[in-house]
């Protein structure tokens, strides 16, 4: 008797139609000897994309939170649909929305002058965020209040706690993984550049050769223009149809009316001034 396969839950969407997924990290005895940490990723109830894994390497809550976000970026297929990762970790979110530019500027030193904690892991996650941006997908990190009845957050938390009970996992080589991803991105950029150069157009010599081989057929002689005769009043000439514009308004005449119209134009949010 064959086992039934789990079906993916319907994708979660926010009000803007963006794909939503939850991440969480859990650590029992955080900061103490013998602590155990797990990561959780929740797409929906019983969804096969859900993840419950043991945190590799050092067992801390912040690392588990970061790696949960990373696992989403590693496992979610690339697309152009915006992706929203919801986490209850303010630390993880601020790493990429507030602090990272300062860290880069300061050569990955914290305000204390000490190296940034989890630097290699954060740089690898940043490489994944850059990769998705380069490939046309926007990723947003949004904070959700933990343990507040949010189904997705509660689901990710439960999976993270399950992950903490699983066997230990060795630390991953974040620097090597980052280097591999950067090399892959550079290869993609080089390929697009070559393809762009090939699509610029054929060389003039090739165009001349093609034109000589396949000369254009002579155009048929045209009859002279003859005006259309009318028996009644003359018809107004028809102007070529123009594409519509987003905003139109009656033309003012007097100077006072002109000034008022100009003021109204610049303040009107419906006006398209790009042309």
Automatic annotation (TrEMBL):
GO terms for biological process: DNA replication, removal of RNA primer. Residues 15-165 form the RNase H type-1 domain. The lineage of its organism: Eukaryota, Fungi, Dikarya, Basidiomycota, Agaricomycotina. Belongs to the RNase H family. Residues 145-166, 189-275 are annotated as: Disordered. InterPro entries: RNase_H, RNaseH-like_sf, RNaseH_domain, RNaseH_sf. It is an enzyme of class 3 (hydrolase). It comes from the Eukaryota. Residues 265-275 have a biased composition (Acidic residues). Keywords: Endonuclease, Hydrolase, Metal-binding, Nuclease. This is ribonuclease H. Its EC number is 3.1.26.4. Residues 228-242 have a biased composition (Polar residues). GO terms for molecular function: metal ion binding; nucleic acid binding; RNA-DNA hybrid ribonuclease activity. It catalyses: Endonucleolytic cleavage to 5'-phosphomonoester.
């Amino acid at each position: 008797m064959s086992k039934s396969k789990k079906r993916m839950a319907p994708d979660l969407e926010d009000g803007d139609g963006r794909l939503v997924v939850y991440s969480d990290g859990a650590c029992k005895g955080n900061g103490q000897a013998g602590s155990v940490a797990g990561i959780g990723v929740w797409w929906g109830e019983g969804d096969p994309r859900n993840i419950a894994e043991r945190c590799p390497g050092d067992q801390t809550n912040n690392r588990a939170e970061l790696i949960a976000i990373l696992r989403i970026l590693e496992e979610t297929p690339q697309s152009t649909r915006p992706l929203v990762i919801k986490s209850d970790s303010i630390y993880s979110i601020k790493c990429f929305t507030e602090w990272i530019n300062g860290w880069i500027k300061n050569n990955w030193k914290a305000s204390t002058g000490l190296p940034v904690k989890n630097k290699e892991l954060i740089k690898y996650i940043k490489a994944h965020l850059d990769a998705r941006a380069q490939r046309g997908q926007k990723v947003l990190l949004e904070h959700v209040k933990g343990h507040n009845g949010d189904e997705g957050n509660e689901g990710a938390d439960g999976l993270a706690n399950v992950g903490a009970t699983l066997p230990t996992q060795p630390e991953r080589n974040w620097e090597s993984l980052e280097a591999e991803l950067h090399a892959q991105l550079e290869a993609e950029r080089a390929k697009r550049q070559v393809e762009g150069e090939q699509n610029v157009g054929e060389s003039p010599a090739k165009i001349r050769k093609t034109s000589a081989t396949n000369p254009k057929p002579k155009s048929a002689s045209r009859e002279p223009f003859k005006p259309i005769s009318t028996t009644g009043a003359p018809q107004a000439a028809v102007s070529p149809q123009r594409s519509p514009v987003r905003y139109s308004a009656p033309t003012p005449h007097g100077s006072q009316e002109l000034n008022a119209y100009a003021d109204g134009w610049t303040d009107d949010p419906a006006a398209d001034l790009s042309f």
